[in-house]
Amino acid sequence: MRAQPKKKKKVDVRKEQAQKDRMKKKIKKLEKAAPEMIPIEDFVTPLKYSDSNRVRSLPPLSFEETERRVLLMKKWCLFKMKQDKAEKNAIQALVEAQQEALKELRLESEELYQAAIRRDEGLFPFERDGPNHTPPLPGYDPPEGKCIDITKVYTQ
Amino acid sequence: GGALVSCHRHYRSRPTHGIGRFQYLLPKEAPKKKKDKVQMKEINVGTEYEYGDVNIYMTSYDMCLVEHFAQYVHKLCNRLSVKVNESYAMPTKTNEVQLLEERGSKLQLDAILTTHQRVVQISGLSSTFAPILLEIIQNNQPEGVHLLVKEHTEADFKSRLKSRPELEELLAQMN
After folding, report:
1. Residue B163, C-beta contacts closer than 8 angstroms, at least 6 positions apart
2. CA distances from A126 to A29, A156, B56, B113, B151 (A)
3. Which residues of chain B neighbour A126 with C-beta distances below 8 Å?
4. Which residue of B has its CA nearest to A94?
5. Where is the Small ribosomal subunit protein uS10 domain (chain B) (predicted)?
6. How far is A16 from chain B (nearest CA, A)?
């Protein structure tokens, strides 16, 4: 009569401790394995592009055509180089103007200069959509539907 | 004999002993760890304030465009001597778009769209230069590419790792 409740307590405590130890061992085993990165599907060529032997056969180009293309490429290269140089000069001018303005500000007042040098907390997160090809249509009625996310979920 | 003539090593007593050694001059490489290091966060506070690790996320449906833009941003940062920590890709998301047909019979058309995301992680961006860099990136942003610039957090790093449901279940049971 007296012994039964004592046995229950001891047995329960022991069982619970044994369970906890087993769970801790399992957790340790799982934690030993290093976390893996999710594989990126972009970098895996799908099989259907690797097996076929289809080769595109282009017709041979005439001399005038090749000359025209080479000269066009040269003009394009020159144009892009000028564009790039203009961009670099613009960046240089921006940075120089900024530095000059900060120097002048420093001469004006030290406090304002210190406040200007500080980083902007409201800058990040910064979000912007790319420019659109056409402006939005005024009376456009989009079709109804839904998007289902079918991304493959990888588990370790 | 032929063996002695072809031997390039000089004898130990000769002054030319050890000529040609150079491996001891090279900087020692740290041994490669197989485990991923969690993260390195820079101190954000300083006199000339600098931002810590900043992630530039570029998202689009067009993979080539977003990859080329990511390469452009990486090269731009190199050119402007902004330190680039990493340049990686986030896993692609696939969406199945189903539209309701207008002709009464409620069939649903299908289209599969893949969203690609590339990340360039920079650090040590000075507070005066940050708006200039953002301006340049915005000017060259192609259409269809969504730009997001935010600070790097541990949650961002963990989103790249595989989920471990068993471990999470056991941890929940423990607590």
Report:
1. A153, A154, A155, A156
2. 41, 33, 9, 25, 10
3. 134, 147-150
4. B132
5. 55-150
6. 11
Contact A144 B174 (CB under 8 A): no
Closest-CA residue in chain B for A32? B35
Cross-chain Cβ contact B163/A146 below 8 Å:
no
CB within 8 Å: B143 and A37: no
Q: What is the ipTM of this complex?
A: 0.81
Residue B173 has pLDDT above 90, yes or no: no
Q: Do the chains contact at A35 and B162, CB–CB below 8 Å? A: yes
Model confidence pLDDT, tens digit, residues A41-68? 889 888 887 777 777 888 998 999 999 9
pLDDT, tens digit, 9 for 90 and up, residues A74-96: 999 999 999 999 999 999 999 99
Which residues touch A2 (CB under 8 Å, ≥6 apart)? Answer: none
Neighbours of A84 (CB within 10 A): 10
Residue B116 has a pLDDT of 95
Q: How far is A1 from chain B (nearest CA, A)?
A: 35
Cβ contacts of B167 on chain A, cutoff 8 Å: 27, 30-31
As a whole number of angstroms, the distance between CA B82 and CA B129 comes to: 10
Q: Nearest CA of chain A to the CA of B164: how many Å?
A: 5
Task: Please spell the DSSP secondary structure of chain B, one letter per residue.
Answer: -HHHHH--PPPTTSTTTTTT--GGGSPPPPPPPSSPP---------SS-EE--EEEEEEES-HHHHHHHHHHHHHHHHHTTPEEEEEEEEEEEEEEEEEE-SSSS--EEEEEEEEEEEEEEEE-EETTTHHHHHHHHHHTPPTT-EEEEEE--HHHHHTTBPB-HHHHHHHHHH-
Tell me whether residues A23 and B173 touch, CB distance under 8 A: yes
Q: Using 50, 70 and 90 to split pLDDT, how confident is the model at B34?
A: low
Cα distance from B28 to chain A (closest Cα, Å)? 26
